[in-house]
Amino acid sequence: LGRGAFQYEFDRYGIDPSIGTARLHEGMDVIEGLLTQEDFEYRGETVSFGPSTSVPRPIQKPHPPIWISGRNAESMRWIASRGYNQLATPWREPFSYVEESYGQFARIRDEAAPEGKRTKYGISRMAFVGETDGEALDAMKDVAINHRAFTRLFNNTATVKGGFVQADPVENEYSDEKLLSNLVAGSPETVVEKLKGYEALGIDEFIMYAGFPLDHAKTTKSIRLFAERVMPHFAKSGGKGS
């Protein structure tokens, strides 16, 4: 869950992005209320409704784990104070960016999380597993397309045609070699070694962002190699802090 990142998204729903954070905060009050109470009602600045019951009722108590996306210190503090888990997306940045972001979250978590509650930190990161590092390098051309589209959306300079963001060139583009270095990409052996760095840092969950946009055959092959030749190395792992 998150407040939204792009002006284009807010425009589609006719929402002023300046109230995005308030909508998220009230929305989480609503979600928690509906998951933990029957005939729950809410009166807020962005949403209000009378007694309502969500069915089916959750099995996990008090509710399923909640993950929130956030980047800055303010959002990290709110996430930790609510006892939520944080999901981060380090884009195409190097591992040092992950180290810095996780270090900031860990410090804030220690200060803000409810007593006795260890909130988790997860990463959603572009990943590609090829038979060789060379095969993975070839796939970075598709990552560059994704980077252009994302950057255009993030900077509110995107051209959208037929539902697709046009991958027009942007400033400060990464070379294919730099993308291969930054991302969890390479041969199975290379990817295992890279993921060990995330494990040692203390990352609790890793989500493989597999389509960016590769063709279907390359995507499914990468996922299969990840499942068969990478995941077994972490079968008993729960993250450094778990």
CATH architecture verdict of the largest domain: Alpha-Beta Barrel
User: What is the helix tally?
Assistant: 8
Residue fraction in strands: 15-25%
Shape: globular
Count all strands and give the number: 9
- Mean of all residue-level pLDDT scores: 94
Largest sheet: 5 strands, parallel
Layout of SSEs?
Elements: H1 7-13, H2 20-36, E1 40-43, E2 48-52, E3 67-69, H3 73-81, E4 85-88, H4 95-112, E5 121-129, H5 133-154, E6 160-161, E7 164-165, H6 176-182, E8 184-186, H7 188-201, E9 205-209, H8 216-230
Parallel strand pairs: 3-4, 4-5, 5-8, 5-9
Antiparallel strand pairs: 1-2, 6-7
Using brief descriptors, characterize the structure shown.
242 residues, TIM Barrel, 2 domains, 9 strands, 45% helix
Structural summary, described in words:
With 242 residues, the chain is an alpha/beta fold. The chain has 2 domains: 1-63, no CATH class; 65-234, Luciferase-like domain (TIM Barrel), CATH 3.20.20.30. It has helices at residues 7-13, 20-36, 73-81, 95-112, 133-154, 176-182, 188-201, 216-230, and strands at residues 40-43, 48-52, 67-69, 85-88, 121-129, 160-161, 164-165, 184-186, 205-209. The strands form 3 sheets. Strands 3, 4, 5, 8 and 9 form a 5-stranded parallel beta sheet that branches. α5 packs across α6. The longest helix is centred in the middle third of the chain and has 22 residues, at 133-154. The two termini are 22 Å apart.
